[in-house]
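hey team, just a heads up i'm posting the complex here instead of the shared drive bc the drive is being weird again. everything in one block, sequence lines first with there labels, then the predicted structure for the whole assembly after. its two chains so it's a bit long, scroll down
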Amino acid sequence: MLEVSLYRYNPETDEAPYMQDFSVDTGGRDLMVLDVLELIKADHDGSVTYRRSCREGVCGSDGLNMNGKNGLACITPLSESVKSDKLVIRPLPGLPVIRDLVVDMSLFYAQYEKVQPYLQNPTPAPAIERLQSPEERAQLDGLYECILCACCSTSCPSFWWNPDRFVGPAGLLQAYRFLADSRDTATEDRLAKLDDPFSVFRCHGIQNCVNVCPKGLNPTKAIGHIRTMLLNRAT
Amino acid sequence: MLEGAPRVDVRVMRTISFDGVIVGGGGAGMRAALQLAQSGYKTAVISKVFPTRSHTVSAQGGITCAIASADPQDDWRWHMYDTVKGSDYIGDQDAIEYMCSVGPEAIFELEHMGLPFSRTEEGRIYQRPFGGQSKNFGEGGQAARTCAAADRTGHALLHTLYQNNIKNETVFFNEWFAVDLVKNQDGAVVGVIAICIETGETVYVKSKATVFATGGAGRIYASTTNAHINTGDGMGMALRAGVPAQDMEMWQFHPTGIYGAGTLVTEGCRGEGGYLINKDGERFMERYAPNAKDLAGRDVVARSMVLEILEGRGCGPNGDHVKLKLDHLGEEVLESRLPGICELSRTFAHVDPVKEPIPVVPTCHYMMGGIPTNVHGQALTVDAHGNDAIIPGLYACGEVACVSVHGANRLGGNSLLDLVVFGRASGLFIEKSLREGIELRDASQTDVEAAGARLQTLNDREQGEQVAPLRHELQEIMQNHFGVFRTGEFMREGIAKLADLRERVENVALADRSNAFNTSRIECLELQNLFETAEATAVIAEARDESRGAHAREDFTERDDENWLCHSLYHSEGKKVSKRSVNFTPQTVETFQPKARSY
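-- predicted structure starts here --
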C-alpha cells in the first residue's frame, strides 16, 4: 500500500484547504503518479479533482507538485517521486487554486500572450514555404517543444513575487523561440517590449526552471540570450 | 431537487450569440476558427481543455502532402491514388481529390504561420517515407511524402494554430464542455448547451453555424493510443440529435502502440528504416507484404502482427507482442529524427531504442468513421428517398467527420492533412454562407429545454452506478468483441452486452454534486458519449459481412464489392443500418477503379 497525501480544497464547502490521506493499492507496480490519482478517483473518492489529457507527457495538463518538486504526473514514476514510503501531491505553487489540484493559470497564459508568440513577417510570403537552412532551424530546438505545463514558472521565486510583471521562464522561452527564428522580422519590436526592469531582468538565474522542466528544456539559457540581445541593443 | 444540484433553467440561463461556434480546440477546430476569425465574423471556440492540450498534440510522424520537396516530380494525383487504395475503395474520390490537391496550399500556409518544420539541405520542408506511399500510381516505388517537424509534428501544428488564433483574437471558451445540440422547430441546428467547467454555469451558446471538431473516441477501447479526453463527444451529441453515423466499424489499430502502456510510436520509425521482428528476430513483414514490407497499410501490418502472435511467434513470457527494431539506425539519426520516441520508449517501455528494440502491439488509434459531411463540412443525413440531405446549421471536420477521405483504412500522415484541409474548407464555406446571409429560426424555450434534458436528468439523479466501473466494462466489451479480428457470433454477444449496459450508463450517478470544476459530472457526460459511439460501432460492424480495410471478419474473409462497395450508415433511432453510395467521380482526374489491394 502506498500512502498518498492529497491537497484538497472545494471553494463551495471548505473554508480552508487541507491535506487528505489515502492508502492506495498499487499492486507493487511502479505506476505513474497520474495512475495513482486515477485509482484514487475511481476507487476512493470521485470528487478528487485534477486535470489530465494525453497521459504521455506532451499535452502539459497535469503539472503538479509531487513531494516538493514540480513535474508532470503522467510521466513521473513512483520510483522517482516517493520518499520515505509517502507521496505528497499538491497543486503547482504560486497560482490561485480553483479546486484541489487545479490552479487558475490565467496569469501564466497572460504572460505567454504578452510576448506575441506568433511569427511576424510582413513581407509577402512566397508561393511555397519560406526557406530555412537546417542550421537556422536547429536554433529552434530546445525552444519550440514547450508544452505550457507551467512547471517552470511556478517553481520560480521571481514569478511568485511578480507574476503580473515578470514574464517568467515559459513566456521568455517562447519570446526567444521567435527572436531566434530566421523567418521572423519583428526582433526590434519584440526586444523593445521586453526592455524594462521586470519583464526579463527579474530572472536571477536560480535555475529552478531548468531543474523541473519535464521536457528537458533550458529557459535560463534562453533568458541569457535575450539579456545579451537587450544589452547589445542598448549600446 | 437535491441540494447543490444545479438546475438547467432556461428562464434564467444566459444566451451567448455568435456567427460561428466551433466545438473542439484541436487542429481541425482551430484551423476552422482561424479562417472564420480572419474573416471578421464573431467566432468562438468551445474546448473542454485548454486548446494546446487537445489530442492533435500527440500526433508524431507528420502530415502527408505532395509539396514536392523530397521529390521535385511528386504529384498530388499519386497521393490521391495511394489514399484511394489505402481506403480499400470506400473513400470518396471527390473528397480525396480535394484534400490532396488543396493540401500543398494548406501546408505552405502553416509554414508561413511559423510551424517549425524540419528542413532539407535546400531549406525546404523535410519529408519522410510513410506506409502506403508510392510514386507514379503504385508503379514507381516508395515515396517520401510526409512533412515532419522531427517526431513532434502534431505539437508543432497545434501550437502554431493556437498562436495564430491569439493573433487573430479568436474568442476561446476554454474548459467549457458542450453537452448537447440545440435544434429549432425546423430541425436546424442553432447552437449548443455548454457548461463552464470552472463555475458550473450552464449557458445556451447560440450560433448560425455550429462546427463539430470534437475529435475521436479511442477511449471506447481498453487499449488505445488516445488521450483520456477522446470520448466521442461530437458523435454522442450527433447521435442523440438523430444525425446518422457513417463507417463506424472502421477503427484503425495502429501497429505500434507501446506494449502495456498503449502510447503511440510513430510509423515514422519504420519510415526512417526501423522494422518489426518476432521472437526469432525475423523481419516477418517480408512474408506478408513482400514489396512494401513494414510500410504496408496500417491495417495490413496490424493484422500480420496479430497473426504472428496467434501463431506462437510473439515476444515476451506470454508471447503477446512483437518488437520494433531501431538500434541499427544509430544514435545520431534517432536523436535528431525521433527524439520524442526515444523519450517515450525510455519512460513507458523502460527500453532505450538506441540499444534495444521496443515492445509493441496493435492499439486502437483512429476512428475512420464519423458524421457524414460533404467537402464543405456540411453535415449530411438521408431523406425518405435515400438521398443525401444537408442538416442546416451543423458542420463537422477532423476526426469526428467522415467526409470520407479515409474510407476503411487511413494512411499515416493523412489525419493531420484532413483536419487542416477540411477545417479550413469549413471555415471558408461558412464565411461565404454568412456573407450571403444565414436565416435560421430562433430556438424556442422548449427546444433549449430539450437540449438541456440529459444534463438535468444527471444532476437530479440520486441513485445509480459510478462512472469508472461502467466505463471499464464498456471498454472491455469493445476490446474483446470488436478488436482487430471479428466474427459475427462474437459481435452479437458484444451487442447484447451493450444493450444490457445502456440503461446502467443512462443511470450513471454523480460522485460529486458541486459546481466548481466538477470533473465527475464531465466524466459522466463523456461516458454517455462513449457509449453512443461504441454502440454505433458494434451494430454497424456486425452488419458489414465482408472484410475491408480495418474491418477484418473471420467469418467473411473476402472483400465483397458486389454488396459492400459502399458506406454504411447507423441511425440511432431503431439502431438501423443502411447503405450510402461512395463517390467515384473526381472532377479533374479519372476514377480510380477498385482492384485487389496488395502491398
